[in-house]
Write a structure and sequence with these properties.
The protein is built from 13 helices and ten strands. It is of the alpha+beta class. Strands 6-5-4-3-7 form a five-stranded antiparallel sheet. Strands 8-10-9 form a three-stranded antiparallel sheet, with helices on one face. A two-stranded antiparallel sheet has the order 1-2. Helix 2 runs parallel beside helix 4 and helix 12 packs across helix 13.
Length: about 425
Amino acid sequence: MPGRGLSEFDRLVLDLDQGPTAVDLGTLLACLAVAGGVCWLAGRKRPADSVWFGRAIVDGVLFPLLALALTYVARLVLGQFHHVPLMRLAVAVLLSLAAIRLLARVFTVVFPASRAARLVERIFSWLAWFVAALWILGLLPAAREEMEAIRFNFGANSSISLLNIVQGVLSSGLVLVLALWISATLERKVLRDNISDLSLRKAAANATRAVLLVVGLLVALSAVGVDLTALSVLGGAVGVGLGFGLQKLAANYVSGFVILSERSLRIGDTVRVDGFEGVVADIKTRYTLIRAANGRASIVPNEKLISERVENLSLTDPRLLLVTDIAVGYDSDPVQVARLMEDAALRTQRVLADPAPAARLAKFGADGLEFQLLYWIDDPQNGQLNVRSDVNVRVLQALRDAGIDIPFPQRVVHLRRSAPPPSPTIALGTEERD
């Protein structure tokens, strides 16, 4: 064929100058149509967060991969008989698009609200299109040779080229993205269906992701020629650093896994730590997030939850006892007052009927009979002040309707008026005469 001695870029320019043939254009469109049809047939019942299909069927990884495979095979076959410049361009474009879609969809599933993930996605997209442009222009082999010529020396006998560094970064990134994808798929497909406890499922997901990331990173480093035996020295140094300089950080991480594994604290439990009461909103590997009913959140290091006293109000029994104090006049019937208070509490939403509310005459106060109304709730995560207020309002209304006096403290201060000081007397003397 003509132009066999030309470079890849020269052949592409020559083919484009001759113009794409109808076979080239028709085959490319047919490959795209077949890939889109397969994705449409397979993705009609896709989940909302699918990496393969994305949000719009052709927005996932499957469409560019299928189109790339079909286009590459068609290019190899038809390239023996026709010049196919469009298909040669499409291979580079589809390969870059598949890499970008893989990173974007996996990051969307694993880090749905991370700005750093969106920034990495944009940077990788620009790099992928830049590499595709070098490939199309035929400059990629020359760029590889230049990067191979740039070498960094480590000591007297060790050196590494810029190409090895770039290949290592790309290989490690690909393996890490695949590990994140596999861990997210396992969490969604396996752990979510087989483990009902949210805390235990989160612990299993974190452990699976950590193991896959470590194994994937070791495989990627081994693939680019990094001697893994050298990592033993690094591992020893890291261990010494964790033992001395990062004691608190390491203790918090270990405590996080202990909490998740022994399930002493679970997501959704109502706890009290250092006087701060709230619901466990999330358990991270380093800290636990506790959110109070008023919207405030407390970030508690996991080591504190292991080494100090923590009140878990939901560990064995989610029920919580609340108490309302009220005083009535001494001329009131104690039996009637107790019955009215208990009935008022029973008519309040969220108050449990079993165990039933109980009103007790606590003591004889200075201003009246002091009662305590005891009642139970089983959803303290929904707040305590709101249900306490509802009970108080109903009790007050019931006592008022029954004409029972609710005294209020009356203090009479007697001021003793002292007599005015005597006015000074002036002695007037008389002149004595002889």
